[in-house]
Write a structure and sequence with these properties.
The chain contains four helices and no strands. By secondary structure, the protein is mainly alpha-helical. The protein is globular. It starts with a helix and ends with a helix.
């Protein structure tokens, strides 16, 4: 049984995995409104990137994580 605090920790722990350059190119093709600036990845700033993409695409945190995770598995 998981508690809300465990769920929140899991949500807070989101990290981009794999080759971001390849992933971002694929996302840019899929979502043409994204710019290089939107997709800029800085070390340790995964949450900022996630929030930027959420805002730009009008997606919830969960939707954006799902999109990124699916994108990662399609590339692997």
């Amino acid at each position: 049984m998981s508690t809300n605090s465990e769920t929140n920790k899991a949500m807070d722990a989101f990290k981009i995995k794999g080759d971001w350059k390849t992933q971002s190119s694929k996302l840019k093709t899929k979502f043409t409104q994204l710019t290089d600036s939107d997709l800029k990845m800085e070390s340790g700033k995964d949450e900022e990137l996630l929030k930027r993409l959420q805002n730009k695409l009008s997606k919830s945190r969960e939707e954006m994580i799902s999109i990124i995770t699916k994108n990662q598995t399609e590339i692997d």
